[in-house]
Amino acid sequence: SQKIEQNSEALNIQEGKTATLTCNYTNYSPAYLQWYRQDPGRGPVFLLLIRENEKEKRKERLKVTFDTTLKQSLFHITASQPADSATYLCALVTGRGSTLGRLYFGRGTQLTVWP
Amino acid sequence: GAVVSQHPSWVICKSGTSVKIECRSLDFQATTMFWYRQFPKQSLMLMATSNEGSKATYEQGVEKDKFLINHASLTLSTLTVTSAHPEDSSFYICSAPRDKEGQPQHFGDGTRLSIL
Q1: Which among B82, B84, B52, B86 is positioned nearest to B70, based on CA atoms?
Q2: Which has the least CB within 10 A, A2, A22, A88, A90?
């Protein structure tokens, strides 16, 4: 069966450290892998997108890696801050084109950054 | 600022009531919008794909007569939960892709539906 697993339900780290979140998938062939941030009672907010032929993407303090052999993506937040505390969602897109933009989500990892 | 607006943000109503949720793209046209449902501590589950000018495509297990979708214009899709019951209580979220490639998607802020 198809699965998207995010390594842990919760991750607690100290401010200034690097947070690393893991997303593993089985029985998917994603064209894209995306990471979203979701705050309580809010909709997800897009952070980064990485394509199947890309290994790494960076945006400010965020970095995403994508290993299609391992079927895994790692999401890093460097120099973490309490404001980074939220739930982070991994999402896969298996099709191409706007009519095939169905997203499949993991359950998310709730990150807490403490001062 | 928000590019997808969802309204209302929360609804509390009696069992048997029908509830309409609106999803608007604010500064772009969306021929396709998506509707998701999220239970506490669970992942977002795609319910249906809303297509402007044509019928929605529902995911397996989602009753199309229960969850009516209308995408009458390029900026508005509506989800109507008909004759809602307590088990329909959930967080409903819509999304729309902004560009032709379809990714990434922009999400509304969700509608918390509570059926008494």
Answers
A1: B52
A2: A2
CA B12, CA B30: separation in Å to the nearest integer?
A: 29
Q: What is d(CA A89, CA B108) in angstroms, rounded to the nearest whole number?
A: 16
What pLDDT, on the 0 to 100 scale, is given for residue B2? 66
SS3 of B54-97: the string is: CCCEECCCCCCCCEEEEEEECCEEEEEECCCCHHHCEEEEEEEE
User: What's the pLDDT tens digit per position in A84-107?
Assistant: 999 999 999 876 554 456 788 999
B residues 46-85 lying closer than 8 A (beta carbon) to A: 46, 49, 51
Which of B32, B100, B103 is the best substitution to test chain A (most A C-beta atoms within 10 A)?
B103
